[in-house]
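ok so i was messing around last nite and threw this chain in just to see what happens. nothing serious, just curious
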Amino acid sequence: MFERHDLTTRFTRPGSALAAGLIASLMLMLLPDHWTAAAKSVAASLLKPGQTAVRALREPAARLHAGARHHFRTAAQLAAAQQEIEQLREENRRLQARLAAARGEARAAVPDAAAADCLLGVACVEACVLGQQARVFLARRHLLDAGSRQHVEPNDLVLGSAPGLIDRGSDAELQPGQLALGGGIVWGKIVEVGRHTSTVRAITEPGYRDLVRLAGSDSDDPRSGPQGILEGTGKPFPRIRLIEVTEPVAVGDAVYTAADEGVLPRPLLYGHVVRVERPVGAAHWEIWMQPAVKLDRLQKVTVLRTVLNPAREK
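result:
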């Protein structure tokens, strides 16, 4: 009994079964055809269903493989298309910002005299921005005091120059609070005035505040948009506050001065909106602006002082 069990176990092992199959195959190959025809017929009959199933599955498997390759190829093309769309959107935002800046510069030509029918106008005071070498030179001669023969009044605007020091002071009648512009674009405000020099706070610096108005890229009237408060943050992008979420605001909108109405015929450009967020439950937009003026490239500035129209004074 034990011998029969050992024999059965031996022939049911994988190695023994494989050896038995090989021996049977060799016998079928070596024996004459008329002896093995019946066995071959039986084997073919047993294998035919499997062969038929393999042939039946081959074509669907090929279609499935082709479909999978097409799917992955389509997914890659879709990802590339989405990336290209994002790049085009970013380029469109940059072009809108440039268009807004160009429109602002075109509108920002500052008149040297008041319009004939207005009570108030502006007069320009030209100044140079002082670099490090100029500051050292003036400091050694005790002339670096901080900028009035030019009759500049508080809140006058200064055009063009990097934030810092300008070579006009009380000798040009500059006063704290006057705005500074570069190329017709707001740069900052005068915060300290000495006899020969004045300090300017740039629009990006903490403590800077001004009343501004937004205008869409397709707007022809820069004074028709929502009004808010521009605040310097110490970072490249100042913030604009107190514009209600019910007002339309979008990236690319231009930002103009709003406190100079009644003095200038057209508002002056500050920059353009680069980021807009609506916090959950908030009543006002969170807006960030990119300055249109190049703060690190300015060499000349113009201070605008408010004056009475001589024709109206008469």
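not much to say yet. The two ends are 139 Å apart (CA to CA).
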